[in-house]
Amino acid sequence: MSHLSAAEVDAIAAKVERFVREVIAPYEQDPRCGSHGPSEELVHEMRRLARAAGVMTPHILPDGRHLTQAQTAIVLQKSGLSPLGPVACNTAAPDEGNMYLLGKVGSPEQKARFLNQLVSGESRSAFFMTEPSEEGGAGSDPSMMRTTAKLDGNHWVINGRKAFITGAEGAKVGIVMAKSEDGACMFLVDLPDPAIRIERVLDTIDSSMPGGHAIIAIDNLRVPADQMLGQSGEGFKYAQVRLSPARLSHCMRWWGAASRAHEIASDYACRRHAFGKPLVDHEGVGFMLAENLIDLKQAELMIAWCAGVLDTGELGTVESSMTKVAVSEALMRVADRCVQVMGGKGVSGDTIVEQVFREIRAFRIYDGPTEVHKWSLAKKIKRDHKHATEGAAA
Questions:
Q1: Domains assigned to the chain
Q2: Does the model's pTM come out above 0.85?
Q3: Which string of DSSP letters, residue by residue, matches 170-230?
């Protein structure tokens, strides 16, 4: 972890903000932004600009040190000011989470082979965990995993199907989850591989992530034993190492997008006149914008609180669940109000407001739907009550 001063972190964040606002935001109307995310050509173009500006992978320092979670929050919020910002600056999912996991669990050889190309922004990655629901595979409940891994000499042979795999099309590095006799495992693979076949890329409500979200078939994928990430049977533990900060990173990035949508809606409300005065002077509109400020500040404070917990070394599963629920729901309200304030303009593609609305609607499901996190928290309440009751009785 870094020992940068607050002023040094603020300087990095300010540099990222200038780059995203001045260089990347104009690309939002680029025809290379499609329904399955920006094209590979556009990704490489924006990343060349990010390298030239000195903002490539800004949360990881040149000497390999990672900013603390609290510091990362400040930087990633700025990268999220445009839906294209995280892609350009290499702070986007799934790469940001995969880099974090590899940094924590990968061997020196694995880091040299797989992590370095991700940190440099030369390659993208994919995380193969979720499986098709119609086949009874793992989704919000990863224990339902059906993809298998069997040892054959010095190779693991993997078979199964995966679903909603973000960025698989065009990725160079893959992390595949499968179940061995010991339990869940993770494997590092070079992509593309003929044994990993993209059946189709789904048409989804969101459109910010390169490669979209794919259905994948894995047929007799052979992975050398030294490409297992960590130990056999420890995959679920590693998944939590990745997912707790990854949930928080989603909150950071989409906070930036929602705050920009609020800026656009506020500007519109102050400029647009109706019934003899600016829209902002009508209580129905002004109050919505005021509520946006409240939700944005509360979300920002939740992010900072959860980041502080993770920086203590705690796994932060409970805190990240609470933060993911609170922030995703708050930002959904912000995005919805922005659309409403702007009326017809808000549902058009003339600004990013309608895209932010779509993206955050998807965010309420990705990395665990709100209801799954609430269910998990309710189970904790029950456990805590049981322990307190038993302790009192003793």
A1: 6-92 (no CATH), 125-231 (2.40.110.10), 236-393 (1.20.140.10)
A2: yes
A3: T-SEEEEEEEETTEEEEEEEESS-TTEEEEEEE--S---STT-EEEEEEEEEEEEGGGB-S
